[in-house]
Amino acid sequence: MFPLNDKESIFKEYMDKRVPLIKNKKILQSSYIPEQLPHREKQINDIVEIVAPSLIKDKPSNILIIGKTGTGKTAVVKYIGKELKKADEYEENCSFVYINCEVVDTPYGILYNIGNQIIKDETRSIPFTGWSLDRVFGELTKYIDDENKVYIIVLDEIDRSFQKNGDDIFYFLTTINELLEKSKVSIIGISNNPKFTDFLDPKIKSRLGEEKIIFPPYNTVQLEDILKDRSFEAFTEGTLSEGVISYCAALSAQDMGDARRALDLLRIAADIAERNNDKIITEAHVKFAKNKIELDAVSEIVRTLTPQSKTVLMSIIINTENNNPIMNTGDVFTTYKQISEILESSTLTQRRVAGLISELDMLGIIHARVKSFGRAGRTREIELNTKDVIDMLKSDALFKKLTTYKNIKQTTLM
Ligand SMILES: Nc1ncnc2c1ncn2[C@@H]1O[C@H](COP(=O)(O)OP(=O)(O)O)[C@@H](O)[C@H]1O
Ligand SMILES: [Mg+2]
Question: Does this model's pTM top 0.85?
């Protein structure tokens, strides 16, 4: 029997054993905005110079910020927003609005969110649904003008909105100034994709990109500085064994200079160590963390594949497991047809299947090299890039029916 009179928590043993390696987990999370952003001084200064006139009610130029994921774009812009609010506390000459277009991804949603952040008079608020886009835009424009202020509107992940909705929203927001008499609106667009503006209407393109700021990837030394700052706040002293920070930095510099990746590595390594009851975090924990991150990424890709793509991938797996690790499109197609038959699903043409193979290649789960065979024409050598996908696909509900999997083995590849 459980000793009920000894009223100590049943979690006591766990709590006693636990050594808190991380003083403050929040600091290692990517949503945390640190006070210091090393190696972004130039970008911060450039943006500050552009937006500063808003403090005296002059309209800043629109800015387009371009840089790969994890290069500090969001952190820098949010940091500047915070500082701008502080500097403007008494005058209230400007208002800083942040929208993430990955989360809010319709034109109505974007305008509704802007309204939601700036409109203080409840009788004038924009309803969640129900109005026409023109009406929302009209009311928002009126409200903005009545306030007699400068509005800086940040559209983060702006290319996401464009992919889904085209450039209507940018048209609205960049032409709004022509309708305003007292207030002014400036846009800061942030994008991971430098090519995204190529698809915009030329007029909108030139308006959005009045000023362009580039965020280059971080190198190893810069990532080390970033991690050192963050870990100094996050960990108790002596928790990190020597070399851990450089190792995380080196791995992430190889991997596109992504500070988010570097922080993820460190945070997950710390989690693993903590769960293991280890007293210090070592490179071995970082290696585990790296594997975990990669596995999670692959599983996310696999999870979101269409049934047809999954079937193509399954065909590649079956060939791999049948002593045909380097196959051509024809091999994949033969197996694919057999699986489709068993699953009673529709069969795409070999050309479409070749297209899906290229997609899987772009997603990085397979390798498809074009191999030239002189007069015989071109063919491809296809190979699985990671064995991780094998178990994931085999446990996918789509292939439950594939119990005759062994039959495919015998018929296809002899
Ligand atoms: N210079 C820096 N100093 C400290 N932390 C940084 C720096 N640059 C990026 N980070 C951190 O890295 C993570 C990713 O940065 P983020 O601004 O979200 O990148 P992006 O928006 O470019 O994808 C965040 O946790 C952020 O705080
Ligand atoms: Mg971002």
Answer: no
